[in-house]
């Protein structure tokens, strides 16, 4: 992404902030895994969205004065020859300016003084922090620590939540984001078709995963955007399955729920296929019902539709088809075979941290995820695609990833060839 993208994101946030306000953001800190080892650092997505800086322990202050003028400064880790010898080069000030378009770059040691000076200057009445916890028991982020400190040290500053504002911005995808998502779809397609081509009875789930990871690895060092769900047979009945230990036996279906990312934008795509390359009668029946339901949804989705109707209508329509096929007795029992909805937004996060809208509008991207789980028949899979809402309807961004039975069987007849 260009610096103009990040500048644009910040400007749209500033436009929503009150006058005489401070905005303080943090990229986050490393989490210790064990002894001297840390989990891979993952920059707070809103921080990345607003600055483009993908580095730990970075802070940012923007101030908006009474006339609406904005002043920005970012605080980075200082150069440190010994640390950098072990863990790689830190971003230099000029590099940070080029990436983010933020003019003033300081070192983190200056942050506390600057914040204190600004907070006590008498010029600011509001303090915007990015405050969010998915669960009340989530660990404190640097923003939560500052929130507590601000309450005691700067009680005259009214705290505002920047999180909701950023979430409302992230809801609508920009052209460059859509371009990145389309590229990510291509990479995801390569990964999924590789698994289809490599598939055979007796293959272990970890081998499918290895094929997927290997294929994504040809496109860059970043790998999958989120932990891949790849399972076979009865393991498909665990919706978020990550153990990869099972084996696909002849007649089993393989399920994947995976996504590549490009420029930090994700995809989230599920396909199901019989490991032996040929759908049997029951698999054909259920798969075509899921596919037809998905196609029905893509024909309906357009601006103005209620967001909750995506799940509601897909369950209603799928129930109707299952009833017509004699699989389901009564529509209200659809929960026996459909265990989840799937209309979650996707973007910088696979379950994108956006402000969930009531109504669908252009440039939203969300998943249409039709899962059917028939435990008695031992068949479970989902067909999950990424839906871009346009001015008049919608587009399936993942349409080119084999999804009809002939497309899947044709793909599976091909041999997997390593790059
Ligand atoms: Mn998914």
From TrEMBL:
Keywords: Aminopeptidase, Hydrolase, Manganese, Metal-binding, Protease. GO terms for biological process: proteolysis. Its EC number is 3.4.11.9. GO terms for cellular component: cytosol. One of its GO terms (molecular function) is metalloaminopeptidase activity. SMART domains: AMP_N. It is an enzyme of class 3 (hydrolase). PANTHER family: XAA-PRO AMINOPEPTIDASE 3. This is Xaa-Pro aminopeptidase. It comes from Candidatus Acutalibacter pullicola.
């Amino acid at each position: 992404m260009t610096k103009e993208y990040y500048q644009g994101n910040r400007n749209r946030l500033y436009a929503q902030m009150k006058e005489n306000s401070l905005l303080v953001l943090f990229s986050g800190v490393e989490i210790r895994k064990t002894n001297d080892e840390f989990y891979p650092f993952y920059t707070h997505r809103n921080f990345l969205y607003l600055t483009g800086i993908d580095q730990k322990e970075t802070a940012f202050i923007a101030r908006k004065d009474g006339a609406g003028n904005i002043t920005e400064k970012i605080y980075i880790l200082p150069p440190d020859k010994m640390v950098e010898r072990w863990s790689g080069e830190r971003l230099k000030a000029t590099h940070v300016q080029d990436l983010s378009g933020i003019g003033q770059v300081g070192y983190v040691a200056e942050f506390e003084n600057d914040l204190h000076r600004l907070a006590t200057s008498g010029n600011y009445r509001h303090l915007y922090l990015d405050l969010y916890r998915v669960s009340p028991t989530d660990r404190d982020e640097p923003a939560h620590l500052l929130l507590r400190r601000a309450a005691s040290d700067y009680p005259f500053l009214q705290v505002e939540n920047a999180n909701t504002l950023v979430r409302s911005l992230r809801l609508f995808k920009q052209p460059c984001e859509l371009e990145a998502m389309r590229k990510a779809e291509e990479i995801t397609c390569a990964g999924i078709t590789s698994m289809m081509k490599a598939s055979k009875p007796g293959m272990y789930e970890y081998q499918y995963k290895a094929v997927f990871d290997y294929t994504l690895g040809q496109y860059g060092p970043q790998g999958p955007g989120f932990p891949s769900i790849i399972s076979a047979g009865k393991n498909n009945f665990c919706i978020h399955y990550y153990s990869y230990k099972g084996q696909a036996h002849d007649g089993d279906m393989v399920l994947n729920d995976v996504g590549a990312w490009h420029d930090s934008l994700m995809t989230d795509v599920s396909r199901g296929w019989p490991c032996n390359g040929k759908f049997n009668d029951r698999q054909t029946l259920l798969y075509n019902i899921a596919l037809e339901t998905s196609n029905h949804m893509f024909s309906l989705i357009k601006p103005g539709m209620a967001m909750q109707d995506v799940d509601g209508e897909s369950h209603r329509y799928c129930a109707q088809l299952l009833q017509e096929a004699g699989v389901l007795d009564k529509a209200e029992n659809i929960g026996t075979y459909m265990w989840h909805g799937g209309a979650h937004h996707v973007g910088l996060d696979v379950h994108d941290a956006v402000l969930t809208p009531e109504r669908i509008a252009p440039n939203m991207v969300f998943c249409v995820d039709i899962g059917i789980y028939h435990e008695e028949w031992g068949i479970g899979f989902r067909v999950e695609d990424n839906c871009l809402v346009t001015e008049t309807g919608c587009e399936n961004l993942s349409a080119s990833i084999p999804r009809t039975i002939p497309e899947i069987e044709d793909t599976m007849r091909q041999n997997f060839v390593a790059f």
